[in-house]
Specification:
Layout (H helix, E strand, L loop, with lengths): L4 H8 L2 E2 L5 E7 L3 E4 L2 E4 L2 E8 L3 E7 L2 E9 L2 E6 L5 E6 L7 E2 L1 E4 L4 E6 L5 E9 L7 E3 L2 H7 L4 H6 L3
Parallel strand pairs: 9-10
Antiparallel strand pairs: 1-2, 2-5, 3-4, 5-13, 6-12, 6-14, 7-11, 7-13, 8-9, 8-12
Length: 161
């Protein structure tokens, strides 16, 4: 069977994610760690997929997140640091084209992702430590980010709902 977005959605039982794309939880550590927001699993992991035309909108987590490329099109992970510095990192396997098979998004960064080229899907894994909790998740509006970072208005318009 040809692997495509429908295949992965069915096989991994992916559901819509508020930031865009779809996801399925794959693991949560049994051990916990105390954080200022309360106890969290030591780490959590998900499968995350963008289908053609989707983006992962700009959002922020209170934990570090490692992204791992799995299949399909390569992604660009767009980041804005706390001091307003924009960067774009390619997640994929074509290292000669500057892609990396895994990347880190540090806690507190504002970030989102988009496919580098039009394609049926991009499938990745994301591991968050301390573990993900929706209480630690913030999705941004275009207005909020343009007000804070007017120098990045073009990418903000692309990466916000």
């Amino acid at each position: 069977m040809k692997r495509n977005a429908a295949y992965w959605t069915k096989q991994l039982m992916l559901e819509s994610h508020p930031e865009g794309g779809s996801f399925a939880s794959s693991y949560a550590a049994g051990s916990t760690i105390d954080t200022p927001a309360g106890a969290r699993p030591l780490y959590t992991s998900i499968y995350f997929m963008l289908a053609d035309g989707e983006v992962s909108h700009f959002h922020q987590l209170q934990s570090d997140e490692l992204w791992y490329y799995h299949d399909g099109s390569a992604l660009t992970v767009h980041k804005i640091s706390a001091d307003g510095e924009y960067s774009a990192v390619k997640l994929g396997l074509d290292m000669e084209q500057g892609e990396q098979p895994q990347i880190l998004v540090p806690a507190g960064a504002i970030f989102g992702s988009s496919m580098i080229e039009s394609g049926d899907y991009a499938l990745v894994g994301c591991m968050v430590s301390p573990g993900f909790d929706f209480e630690d998740f913030k999705l941004f509006t275009e207005e909020e980010l343009v007000e804070r970072f007017p120098q990045h208005e073009t990418i903000i318009k692309k990466m916000t709902p």
